[in-house]
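User: Last request for today: this protein with S-adenosylmethionine, please.
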Amino acid sequence: MNRFQLNQNRGLQVNISQDEIINVFHSIFYASENDHCGPPKLYNGVPIHKNPGDMFNYQQILFTQKPDYIIECGAFQGGSTMFFADTLSLIGKGKIVSVDICERDERWYPQVEEHDRTILIPGSSVAPDIVSKVKDVVKDGKSFFIILDSLHTQAHVLAEIESYAPLMATGNYMIVEDSNLNGHPLPPEWHKQTMEEGGPFEAVVEYMSKYNDFNIDTDMENRFLFSYAPSGYLVKK
Ligand SMILES: C[S@@+](CC[C@H](N)C(=O)[O-])C[C@H]1O[C@@H](n2cnc3c(N)ncnc32)[C@H](O)[C@@H]1O
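Assistant: Here's the final one, the structure of the complex with S-adenosylmethionine:
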């Protein structure tokens, strides 16, 4: 095991493992984002709520796989939608279908709506009529990148995985974001609803216990030492 020993000159010794350092840093990093430290984090002028390491991983997966469609559940103002749409423009292929229930005042910024690679669908990502609408829009697609970042309860995320996994081809990625909630490693008290109802991590565990159609790519997940999607880089078998 990797251990760092900090010997201080009064004889104080602190033993802390690399995993502990990473988990504490992960929580501090996440907290600083939630506390809105410093100027807002914008991607191409739109607020975004992603771990930059994960974003780097996503662009690399996208440039490698060149999917026909990205399906995004949960957009808020659309910073992530814009990031994916711009990435598809650079690749020169594909569209992003972004779904958000739009319950808050803010929704996709105008420049996201106007982007020629976005298709925006207001509604719940698990409502049968919305799932049908998404499937109709992407019916000519053969390869997908799917990212779940909407309501973070176990039941909701499980329903999203079950709704969209059947679309996917071998090797396609589905990312389950915010699986760091509820003790993985963020303290459970951080998010009351996932503490009480289970969160994205528990949804992945439940899905994997019922079905056998995904592997988890922990190598990609851990390239920057921590991810907001632990055990959430699902690769279709
Ligand atoms: C964490 S924010 C998304 C952040 C965005 N992906 C980003 O990285 O900038 C979560 C979003 O999920 C949306 N949401 C909540 N429940 C939903 C549902 N049932 N279906 C679709 N979207 C939902 C909320 O409206 C909110 O905009």
